Amino acid sequence: MRLLRSDSPEVIRVLASRDCIRADSPRSEVRAALGGSMLIGLLFISLQGIHWDYAGQLAGAVLVIWNGVQLWRATFNRRLWLLAVCEGRFYIRLFNPVGPRSGQDTEANVLTLDMAEVGGIQVRIADIFIHGPKPTVYEWLVIEPKRELWASAADHVERLGQPAPGFCPVAAGNGPYGEWFAGWWNERVSVRWLGYRPTLKEYVNRLASRYPDLTVLPEAHPELDLVSIVSKREPERRRLLAQAKKMGFNNECVWALYMYTGHTLYQRTKSLREAQGYMLTIDVGVDEEVDSTQGEQGGLPRAASADRHR
User: Fold this and answer.
1) In what side-by-side order are the strands of the sheet with 178-180?
2) Which structural domain, as residue segments, surrounds residue 147?
3) Considering the entire predicted model, what is its pTM?
4) Which of 83, 178, 209, 226 makes an SS bond possible with 23, Cβ 3.0 to 4.6 Å?
5) Each residue of 76-113: pLDDT tens digit?
6) 188/244 same-domain check
7) How far apart are CA 62 and CA 65, in angstroms?
8) Residues forming beta bridges with residue 112, ordered by sequence position
């Protein structure tokens, strides 16, 4: 297990290899396309304000050209790589610098794991009920290093300043370091799959085909009903929220508290700031009572039963 810079010779060589199995993110192109379209829309509104007859034609032509350029870039340009497997080794990009440092790889931000150091990988798809009848679906690729490497992996990631425990394992801004794609939660490296290509299951199938000795654990599909949890009384609500916070769903707990904290759905007895403050008071180590069987079941608190009339 090592940490490398994403612009190191080894990483560059691996990414250029034909044998590299990699996952890329198209999100940077999507952001640029949406931002440009919004500016073109503002241009159209401005021209309409001065009653220019050709405002619609100009805005439409510019919009078509802009989206054509973005489509070309998304098709032919290099994507932001997030995960690569080559020569029997995982290369996991933990974060990407953003802001003034976006073009500089000044930190070692790629975690490497040899196949011999990996106990197994797993697809985890969680259905999280935050509000409404349909769940929000989260997908992760979970990479489990062997037990003797847990302390070393945790130390590597913590020294880089990953988002504090209790925040979602999701790409998120993190001060000077930037945009996180993976993190260390519950003795595992978790990579949140956010519309990356290929799809998560397709990527795992490619790995299993290329590396038959790699252990692929059964897919986990936990369900967490936060609406039911936040409607419970103390201290049961606090205990269940502590479990959800430990497993990385702090932000979802905040939103559920904000949306539903009374006996009636959407009775907002807490402001968003109050909901955030409440979650800050929850100490995972003190409030949580961990069921020893949950760690093997995908690391989520058992969903409390609730009516599906939500």
Assistant:
1) 95-96, 178-180, 173-174
2) 2-25+81-210
3) 0.68
4) 83
5) 555 678 899 999 999 999 887 765 554 555 578 899 99
6) no
7) 5
8) 2, 91
